[in-house]
Amino acid sequence: MIPKPRRQPWNAVEKIALSAFVFWSAAGLVFIFGHITPDVIARWPVPEFLRDFVDGCVRFGDPALIFLAFINTHLHAARQWSPGIARRWGLTILVCAFGIEALGAHTGFPFGAYHYTGSFGPMWLDVPLTIPLAWHVVVTNALFLVRAVAPYLSRLAEAALAGLLCTAYDFILEPFATTVKRYWIWNEGSVPPLNYVAWFFLSALLVRLFAPTLSTRYRIDPRPAMILLLTVLIFIAGELMR
User: Domain extents for the chain?
Assistant: First the structure.
């Protein structure tokens, strides 16, 4: 039986993690709308250590944002299920995502031919280590959104709807990541339709095969929507202000 919507106070770690994510997201939007770039920072009449600090925030802001989003996503999953279930789910998504991306980067299957540029954080086997974290953020929060708004769906319908959400998220992400930031480059110059087909089936398959069957404990929790919407807002703002 699915429990009635209720609220449960967050602990101190959850509050600090969410505050850090919201602050970093807001700072990112300020940098985007203010056209603050490393070249602009170099001309600021401020102490050198402050320029270096802000320059680091600009250069590594997106990997830091993904890491903060990952931390908040995991904390939310641990509350909704249990710490042990959240760890098993998270490890499964991270391993599968890395394997899929390593295969894709080396063979062009299943997304199409592309390669990472090395500007999205440290890489291993030609895949930035932030990419599996991003998969976890997108797939997990999509799953929780589906379970929050439609808790009585069948497992197959749940997986399909989560897959659609993940695909829509990737559709918004692609112009920002490939044109604005150039974190990865499609060999043919544009995003192949196969990429979106693969995203739908792979994310839906991950949810269908591995998502815990336990219903969520607390349907009223803003974090999944906040994490996805704030990151999407940054993508759109970055594309509009380039």
Answer: 12-240
The amino acid present at 128, given as its one-letter code, is P
Q: What contacts 177, CB < 8 A, 6 or more positions away?
A: 183, 184, 235
* CA 81 from centroid of its chain's CA atoms: 20
**Residue found under tokens 């499609």:** 186
In the chain, % of residues over pLDDT 90: 74
Give the pLDDT score at 2.
46
Q: What is the pLDDT of residue 1?
A: 44
The phi and psi torsions of 183 (rounded to 5 degrees) equal -70, -35
pTM above 0.70, yes or no: yes
Burial of 80 by CB count in 10 Å (0-12 exposed, 13-18 middle, 19+ buried)?
A: buried
Question: Which of 26-35, 87-96, 176-185 has the lowest average pLDDT?
Answer: 26-35
Q: How many CB atoms lie within 10 A of CB 65?
A: 22
What are the structure tokens assigned to 42, written together?
């170099």
Question: Tokens 């830091």 map to which residue?
Answer: 64
What percentage of the chain's residues is helix, strand, coil (to nearest 5)?
70, 5, 25
| C-alpha to C-alpha distance for 156 and 103, rounded to whole angstroms | 26
Averaged pLDDT of the chain? 91
Calculate Rg over the CA atoms of the chain. Answer: 18
